[in-house]
Amino acid sequence: MEVVIAPADQLAVLAAEAIDKLVRATPTAVVGLATGSSPLKVYDELVRRHTEEGLSFAQARAFMLDEYVGIAEDHPERYRNVIEKEIASRVDFAPGAVQGPDGNAEDLVAACADYERKIVDAGGVDLQILGIGTDGHIAFNEPGSSLASRTRIKTLTAQTREDNARFFGDDLAQVPQHCLTQGLATIMSAKHLVLLASGKGKAEAVHQLVEGPVSAMWPATIMQMHPHATVLVDDAAASRLQLGDYYRQTFLSKPEWQGL
User: Fold this and answer.
1) Among the four 29, 58, 122, 134, which has the fewest Cβ within 10 Å?
2) Angle between helices 40-53 and 8-25 (to 10 degrees)
3) CB neighbours of 24 closer than 8 A, spacing ≥ 6?
4) Residues near 140 by Cβ (< 8 Å), separated by ≥ 6?
5) Where exactly is the site Part of the allosteric site (predicted)?
């Protein structure tokens, strides 16, 4: 696992640069898209590169991590709509190139299985963008999630619903209680994982992710088992890391050509 500690704006540029290199080298690449606040600056940087530097997603495909269950299709916080607003409609993805789990399907179990098949049929995800919750969840894999889990229905914890209430006018009652989410094993199948975290509120989760034991109680710790995982954090999110100075030294001495 590579840990990069840098200002938040620089982290977004690093993540966008990794996607840029991937898509330019392999125009048909498959990118994993995340919602939440962490990837927003990454998407802004990708849009800038698309507009100003000719970065094209015309042949690329993308898969979303998760979706709320039972949320109205026109709701602004439906993740399909968030991804459309923040990235898909701002670059040149082809119609239908961005896929997400169907949280309004009549048969949610079948919808989860179908989503798994779509990812496999696409050849898997080449680079997956991730955020992390204060309780260590990635996607909506809450504490206690099976480390071998695949796309499935999950009940959101009280902590996650409270954290997400800010997107629903701070009205907890409006936050859905269930979701469909890629499982931890699904996420681990991606070729490259890039996780971003900023702010002191993420410090304990980042500490557990990087330096704690692999445990279902901190689902993100499964990333320690991935052959190509990159963790991008600012100083506040890195404040609990015991080896913070070493991570800074390692990144500063890294050859520019090596990339993430």
Assistant:
1) 58
2) 50
3) 55
4) 65, 66, 154, 156, 160, 179, 181
5) 145, 152, 154-155
Contact present, 65 and 127 (Cβ < 8 Å): no
Rounded Cα distance, 129 and 69, in Å: 22
Please confirm, yes or no, whether 66 is among the known catalytic residues. yes
- pLDDT tens per residue, range 145-198: 999 999 999 999 898 899 889 999 999 999 999 999 999 999 999 999 999 999
DSSP class of residue 37 equals S
Q: Is 135 a catalytic residue?
A: yes
Pairing between β-strand 152-155 and β-strand 178-181 as defined by DSSP bridges: antiparallel
How many Å apart are CA 216 and CA 221, to the nearest integer?
A: 8
Q: What is the pLDDT of residues 218-245, one digit of tens each?
A: 999 999 999 999 999 999 999 999 999 9
- Which has the closest alpha carbon to 47: 61, 57, 34? 57
Tokens of 180: 């469909």
Place of tokens 């696409």: 122
List the catalytic residue out of 45, 66, 67, 163: 66
- For every residue of 113-134, DSSP letters joined together read HHHHHHHHHTT--SEEEE---T
Residue at token pair 């802004």? 44
Residue 50 is a catalytic residue: no
Q: Measured between alpha carbons, how far is 80 from 87 in angstroms, rounded to an integer? A: 11
